[in-house]
Specification:
The protein is mostly helical and about 525 residues long. The protein contains 21 helices and two strands. Strands 1-2 form a two-stranded antiparallel ribbon. A hairpin with a 2-residue loop joins strand 1 and strand 2. Helix 2 packs antiparallel against helix 3, helix 2 packs parallel to helix 4 and helix 19 packs across helix 20. The longest helix is centred in the C-terminal third of the chain and has 29 residues. The relative contact order is 0.09. The C terminus is likely disordered.
């Protein structure tokens, strides 16, 4: 007769030690955990060395920055103060969450650049290595790389940065951090909805869903003739709506209709809110298609597809099927901010390029991997404008209660939401104008070229009209990097983080001003 399994003494001790370690790490300094996370992620491309032994000559290019990040993370975890800290009277929870978020992104940009620099890519020019890392982590896809000669280990590094940047670092940390700390970080990075009541469970579900979609994408690409390595890289970039490719001609180089369709599907999936995707997978099809963002996405495709197709039929003499395919792929790639292409976008007629330029500002759903203004803000902008026009033609006594559909159901459009929407769009356009003017100055390009290029960087779209190159000036690359960072982190979190950091430094440098009182909840 088989008895019940009884754990051995050594196993019990090991389990106790692991539990203590997990508890210690969950309560340790968040900056240390973030540095540890980046160090582990940087080492991921080393897994291809057993399959491609020639890539082992770049071992140190990844081990050094990864090792430094891991050691730094452990030092911070051990010696820095633990716990959530005290919220001061001058520091809101959003301000408190903004600093770690800003820290991990900046730390990731720098750490992600060093493998390129140490490995001798871009002639060891650190500004070019940093540009590629920023473009990767922000899932933009603007590149100065010659992928035809780039070693595979760096191609995988580029794709993996985009995959992780699309998911967001804080999703991973939310599975480890506890209490208000994880909540403030999650909200600060711009994630929209919680799928489960528990934030930790929400992060686990999102990561699992994201990983499953990656696996499906890899299998689908490989099944239709794409090499396994290329399948992994393209699936990572497509699901993160990023756009780095292992081919100079992007997806168009494969000249395969099934691969084109798979890419369109992956880009669309990546541009949809994770919570909405889960709702769809659970069978809530009707509720899914009632969501305002999904309806607007469908409307964009239905309106822009015939317009772009007509332009290709008339100005490029494309056949019906070829024109529809190129138009649908281009529209999907740009409004999802993916940046993949079937043909050089510079070859498109001016009318089609003008439509693509408009789509660069839209972006995907809030809480997805896409950049841009986001579908929900565009929908609210259109809806508010429509209500305003109707109000001018309606009787003065008429009272309206506009609303929009979210995953949670119908939600009223109140004054706070209107102010937040118009505030963000106004700030977005102001930064865009400043970026365009600065870019036209540093790149010495035409106004339209600067408008197109900065819209691509700021919206994290990743298509270029030639301004982005290894020969671009330092000023041009810095402006484009600033655009990518602001676009990925949605502007305000960067401003709040910089302001909070500056104020914190100011209080440390001025002890008399640095005194504050702990906030307590009085009955």
């Amino acid at each position: 007769m088989c008895g019940a399994f009884v754990p051995q003494k050594g196993m019990v001790i090991t389990m106790i030690k692991l539990n203590k370690f997990n508890k210690y790490m969950s309560e340790s300094n968040v900056y240390g955990k973030l540095a540890l996370l980046v160090g582990v992620l940087i080492s991921f491309p080393l897994f291809i060395i057993p399959f491609y032994p020639d890539e082992s000559r770049y071992l140190n290019a990844f081990l050094i920055p990864s090792g430094v990040a891991v050691v730094l993370g452990f030092v911070i975890c051990i010696f820095a103060p633990r716990g959530e800290g005290v919220i001061t009277e001058w520091q809101s929870p959003l301000q408190k969450g903004s600093l770690p978020v800003l820290f991990i992104w900046v730390f990731a940009f720098i750490s992600g650049a060093f493998p390129f620099f140490i490995g001798g890519q871009y002639n060891s020019r650190i500004i070019l290595a940093l540009f590629e890392a920023v473009s990767g982590w922000t899932s933009t896809g603007l590149t100065i790389s010659d992928v035809a000669v780039m070693p595979r280990i760096f191609l995988l590094h580029r794709a993996f940065m985009q995959y992780c940047g699309g998911l967001g670092f804080i999703i991973v940390i939310a599975m480890l951090a506890r209490g208000k700390q994880s909540i403030s970080l999650y909200n600060a990075e711009g994630h929209a909805d919680r799928i489960m009541p528990s934030l930790k469970r929400t992060a686990q579900i999102i990561t699992l869903l994201y990983s499953c979609l990656l696996g499906v994408g890899i299998i689908a690409y490989h099944a239709f003739g794409m090499e396994l390595f290329d399948s992994i890289c393209h699936a990572m970039s497509a699901i993160s709506t990023a756009g780095f490719s292992t081919k100079a001609g992007s997806i168009g180089e494969y000249n395969s209709l099934p691969i084109d369709i798979i890419t369109i599907v992956l880009m669309l999936i990546g541009s949809i809110n994770f919570a909405a995707l889960l709702l769809l997978l659970k069978g809530g099809i009707r509720k899914f298609f009632r969501i305002s963002e999904v309806r607007l996405m469908r409307g964009i495709i239905l309106v822009f597809l015939p317009l772009v197709s007509f332009s290709l039929f008339r100005d490029m003499n494309m056949g019906f099927g070829e024109g529809i395919k190129n138009a649908l792929f281009g529209i999907t790639s740009i409004f999802t901010t993916s940046g993949y292409s079937l043909m050089n976008y510079a070859e498109f007629p001016p009318f089609a390029l003008g439509l693509f330029f408009v789509l660069m500002f839209v972006g995907g759903s809030a809480g997805s991997t896409s950049g841009g203004i986001k579908l929900i803000r565009v929908y609210l902008f259109i809806r508010i404008m429509k209500e305003n026009i109707k109000k001018r033609f309606s009787p003065s006594r008429r009272i309206t209660s506009p609303s929009y559909e979210r995953i949670q159901g119908k939600t009223p459009i109140d004054d706070t939401l209107v102010k937040d929407t118009f505030g963000f769009i106004s700030c977005y356009m102001m930064i865009y104008v400043i970026g365009v003017l600065l870019l036209s100055l540093t790149a010495e390009s035409t106004l339209f070229d600067s408008m197109f290029e900065f819209a691509s960087a700021f919206g994290t779209v990743g298509i270029s009209n030639g301004i982005t190159s290894a020969d671009a000036s330092v000023g041009t690359l810095v402006i484009l990097m600033c655009g990518m960072i602001l676009g990925r982190l949605e502007i305000f979190i960067v401003f709040i983080g910089v302001y909070t950091c500056a104020r914190k430094l100011g209080r440390k440098l001025s002890p008399a001003r640095g005194k504050y009182t702990k906030i307590t909840n009085k009955p």
